[in-house]
Amino acid sequence: MNNQKSFDELKDYGEKFGQLLQGLKQHDGLLQEQYSERELVLEHDKLKLYHYVPDQHIQKTEADTAQTDQVQTPVLIVYALVNRPSILDLQQGHSAIAQMLKSGLDVYLIDWGYPDASDKHLDLDYYINTQIDACVDLICDTTNIKQVSLMGICQGGVLGLCYSSLHPQRVKSLVTLVTPVDFHTEPDTLSNLVRHVDIDLMVKTMGNIPGDMLSSTFLSLRPYYLQLKKYLNLVESTAQLDEKTKERIANFILMERWIFDSPDQAGEAFREFVQGCYQQNRLIKNTLKVGGCQIDLSTLNIPVLNIYADQDHLVPPASSKALENLIPANQYQEMSVNGGHIGIFVSPKSVKAIFPAIADWLRKHS
Amino acid sequence: MVENTSFNDEWNKLQKRFWDNVGSSFTPSATNGDDITPSPQHSLFNQWLNTVDKCWQDHAEVSSGDIDALYNKVYSSSRFFINFSETLHKNPKGETADILMVNYLKEFTDKASVSATDFATAVDTSTKNNIDGNSESTLDSSLDSSLDSSLDGSLDSSLVNASDSVSEESKAKTNQYTQQESKQANFSAMHQLWQLPMANWQQQATFFTSQNQSLKALADYVGDTAKNPEFSAALEAYLVALQELQQLFFKLMINVAKLTVEALQKNTQQALTAKQILSLWLEYFDTQYLDMIATESYSLIYAKVINSWLLVIDKSDKTFAEFMQDTVPSSPVSSSSSANNPHQ
């Protein structure tokens, strides 16, 4: 290698590194995480149910205005137990929640909170038949309706499918996003990793499953990109410290904070979910049981919109698409989105593609 | 929070290595020790060092935990790149980057068997030392030097010890240890057995660092619980499982090195930058790694490691939280997200 070129490369890198550090210094760690205005409408143990206030100040385009008749049936977002739902409203200008409001949705969001040692016996029955049900009750009572629409994200989609199967009279329609249904598709590295792990011993030993352990497991699925390249890319993208770069650094910090903000998992629910779904693949066999009741998706006779990400390394598209063969054909629609498991919730392009489409679909099925 | 003192120490070491390695190559040799005229490269390099040095100083003012955490990650990743670039700068003949990388990786793969022999010899020496009650083992010394030298690059030839014979030798030693009457010597010897491959693995893949630290601390913990035979058996199973996992990773590393050599040999343009070459190598690693973890055999070995680790904790006389606190003082698990979460 030409020595001058090599030195220039290093020098360039050092300068960008310096710019990045200057950019980091300008954030004091108190970056705002939540942009959309919301009200706490229910507290149930550690669960909090929020209702988002439609933002009257949102500037709508003509296309927005043409499509944004308010969707009549409120939508309840059921996020996964792993990770935090704050990803949906993390970044100004990239907020999925803001886009939902802009698209005319009446949005409620479940925040599961952070389980502690006293919660290790909580099972799927509790999360689905007690907590989700309490939220649905409150929304129905408050808005004087009998049914809500559910929007389940990732593991939350599985919870949504189970709730809809067990309480069909309470669900008007269901949207599943990046939701695993068949846990034994190829390639499914996450499923492959946990396939032979002794979950009983894990729960016996640990009680609750540490969120940091799960976080490390997720990172190990793409070690080069998630633990090295993205940080090098951050340096590379910091050629000059303009406003755009500052915003990019701020967003990067928020994403980092979100990635490593992993709640512990209640031991019993974790056992049921991993054994029942990842190891025994019972959801697709219609043999999964929640609270002693069988989840038979073939009887799920409500409209379902199934959205999957075509580059999802955590939930392969094939895993999500398996839902098509389980529920009545006339009730099923699907949508493919370009992006990864997390990226589709923070990429402005994906957010603008997904949530107006969901609103439009819900409007037709309200 | 980042300890500025240790951070500065690290930076000072980095600077010294730069000058030790690069200065001799690029600074014209002086006829008089007091009269050295820096080459243009030397000046450029000095400029670069000053830039980074200023960044370090500025960092001392950054106090947020979030920023520090991110900074550490960026710094670790950057160091990886810097180490690699540094390797290129050691090149006194001015070879192109891709040719240099070919030679480098060839050395990496060619020396595998030699390293395996070195490893077996080191284990043998260590065993004798331990049984004799000699705490200053040869292996510890070689470990330290190996760890130090690892900072010089991502592909130091001393890292290579991938060979099935390593594991067989180790297993044989492990079995031998279980027959010793002294449990303490047994655990101490086992500690030595896994420490070397684990230390090497630490050099190869940063994402395994926390596990490695856990193991080192675990060794200290083992000393206090040597009277528990179930624990002893569980630990032995865990260490054997770990060795199986390591073998997979060593094979992976050699495959990646070979693939990279082949690709670079086809690069007749010889125009790749250090970053491009590093990316090439890492992308091969990622691809091979993803293929590996998707296999049934990996799933089985991975589960064996996790399950035996859980059994170690289960058979200890501690709770999981106590165990993690005792063995991994800085473990994120020991300061779990729910306990420290600012949102609560």
TrEMBL record, chain A:
Keywords: Acyltransferase, PHB biosynthesis, Transferase. It comes from the Bacteria. One of its GO terms (biological process) is poly-hydroxybutyrate biosynthetic process. One of its GO terms (molecular function) is acyltransferase activity. Residues 74-347 form the AB hydrolase-1 domain. PANTHER family: POLY(3-HYDROXYALKANOATE) POLYMERASE SUBUNIT PHAC. NCBIfam families: PHA_synth_III_C (TIGR01836). Pathway: Biopolymer metabolism; poly-(R)-3-hydroxybutanoate biosynthesis. This is Poly(3-hydroxyalkanoate) polymerase subunit PhaC. The keyword Acyltransferase applies. Pfam families: Abhydrolase_1.
Automatic annotation (TrEMBL), chain B:
Residues 126-145 are annotated as: Disordered. Residues 135-145 have a biased composition (Low complexity). It comes from the Bacteria. This is Poly(Hydroxyalkanoate) synthase III subunit E. It comes from Cocleimonas flava. The lineage of its organism: Bacteria, Pseudomonadati, Pseudomonadota, Gammaproteobacteria, Thiotrichales.
